[in-house]
Amino acid sequence: MSRRVAVVGGGALGVTAARDMAVRGADATLYERDEVGSGASGRAAGIAYDAFAEDVDAAVAERAVERFRELDAEGAIEFADHPYVWFARAGDERHADAVRESVERMRANGRDVELLDAAAIADRFPAIASVDVAVAAVARNAGYLDPKSYVRAMADRAAAAGAAVETGTKVALADDGTTVETPSDTESFDAVLVAAGAHTKRLLAGVGVPIPMKPYRVQALATGPFDGAGAVPTCYDATAGRYARPREGGLLVGDGTQEREFDPDDYDADADPAFERASLDWLDDTVSTERGESEFGIRRSWAGLCTATPDRDPLLGPVESDLFVATGWHGHGFMRAPALGERIAEAILGGDGIEAFDPRRFDGDESFEVVEGMTVEE
Ligand SMILES: Cc1cc2nc3c(=O)[nH]c(=O)nc-3n(C[C@H](O)[C@H](O)[C@H](O)COP(=O)(O)OP(=O)(O)OC[C@H]3O[C@@H](n4cnc5c(N)ncnc54)[C@H](O)[C@@H]3O)c2cc1C
Q: Best of 329, 335, 336, 340 to mutate for ligand 1, by most ligand atoms within 8 A of CB?
């Protein structure tokens, strides 16, 4: 008989795991309290690259980008190939050293990344030529996509493979965690995966399983269109802690990270005016394309929650024998979801997980400070 598995959470991780388990013959049910993609995944910037310094992260990210490209080839999503540039500004030696070191380690892992000096940046990326760069790096296996399009495509594929996709269904766990209580029913499963984003800790606490994870708030905005926006590389300014990528003729700008724990049921999902002002100042200072008479205008801005762990690595694997968790992405959960969802699906069905991400490396009650994930420093 096929293994009956429940997935709680219809974000990028949950839909991928549900689809991959259904394809492998499991009897999978995905529960989502709202619509699929209504959590962090629908708020993500949709940036993806394989430029990671740790070998395990690099392999995961490479597989994820490969899956994005496969879906693009099938016409299910649009993955825009676009270089990812990260840089430290002149005078910021700490981050400049970290950029140099990260590139060395990425290259040792076989990543297609290259160090660039100020002249090379000006030559290759004139749209950010006005930045006084100390050192920059470029990753070529990179791009961006609409994150909701991925979640919808994977949810559709999960359903096509036979998974039940129950949206508008907020669940709680009961007994040893393999019983799921919906508003109308109670169902027992052979295994349960909790991929409920910022709510994951709260759900597991309901069955007495502690995990060391804290939700923290990050922000983003989209500008209106302007000439030359498409020539801006996806970029991360390590000195300013801000990033951008082209979006619908304008730019999407992000960060505004608040390094403290937020309540997933009570946080402000709108961006702060101070974040908006600082982002526009940063754009003025960073993007050197012709913008005509007009300044950058804000089309939309928002905030969402990312999830932090004590060592900045994910919690991916079993917390009890048939109760699994998938969270703790430090702002890099969307770009890795196609691979991490695949790996947790395999682990639940008896295959290998990722040892470095095994949640049982922690007791669950560790105290720790939230440190943001968008950084070049280890
Ligand atoms: C502004 C912003 C920009 C970002 N940019 C990027 C980026 O460019 N690249 C990148 O890799 N990452 C990015 N991230 C991080 C990324 O969004 C997350 O790491 C990733 O989407 C998390 O996916 P998930 O499936 O684990 O969680 P989520 O997408 O949060 O999904 C969890 C789901 O569980 C559901 N749920 C919760 N409780 C219950 C319950 N009791 N019953 C049923 N369902 C429940 C929620 O409704 C939600 O849909 C960004 C995040 C933000 C906020």
A: 329
